[in-house]
Amino acid sequence: MEQFPLNSASLRIYVWLFFLTVALPCVITGFAFFSKPTFNWNIFAIVTALSVSIFLVLSVPVFTRHRVEIMNGQVNIKMAFYSEAMDSKDIKAGSGIIVSLSKTPNLQLRTRLNGIGLPGYQAGWFTLGDGSKAFAAVTSDEVIQLQTTKGYSLMFSAEDPVSVLAALKMR
Questions:
Q1: CA distances from 9 to 43, 122, 123, 128, 156 (A)
Q2: How do strand 109-118 and strand 82-87 relate by DSSP bridges?
Q3: What is the number of alpha carbons within 13 Å of residue 62 lying toward its C-beta?
């Protein structure tokens, strides 16, 4: 089995994730905890703080599993909550190319169908600029695009795209 890491997300995405999963719930919890309404919000605040803490502890491994695995004729792309497994025979021969998304508007991710779409961090199913469908695991401008026989493409940001394409061509 060969494993290739995907590009890590930029610092900006981790700031967004921190704000959405830690700072915002803490502000809401603080307002609830220090307010003086007739209802006792302290229990609500404690439950919210515990829920956020548990979510963070459980989601750290999920947000760090970014990789492409090539083994036994299978190609597996894993990023965050999304993964796609495909037989290598379903990938069109010679279709693997390295593209720059900023220079090819017809391949840019346009509409998120089901996935995570934060700045610098896209994972899941998207429609492209040309209207086709793609499974994406994108954290940078340079991506590998693979055409499939199933009517959609695979797009992912690998740390070493040349070695990933070489491993795919050997299969």
A1: 36, 10, 11, 21, 12
A2: unpaired
A3: 12
Residuewise pLDDT in 10s, the chain (171 residues): 788 877 776 677 777 777 777 778 777 777 766 766 666 667 777 777 788 778 777 777 766 778 888 888 889 998 888 899 999 889 998 888 999 999 999 999 999 999 988 878 899 999 999 999 999 999 899 999 999 999 999 999 998 999 888 888 876
**Residue located via tokens 């934060």:** 118
- Whether the full predicted model's pTM is greater than 0.85, yes or no, is no
Q: What is the DSSP letter of 13?
A: H
Q: Across-strand partners of 69?
A: 3, 76
- Separation of CA 106 from chain center: 20
Instruction: Select from 54, 46, 65, 44 the least CA-distant residue to 21.
Output: 54
Question: Residue 107: phi, psi to the nearest 5?
Answer: -105, 0
> What is the strand order of the sheet 133-138 is part of?
97-100, 142-147, 152-156, 133-138, 121-128, 109-118
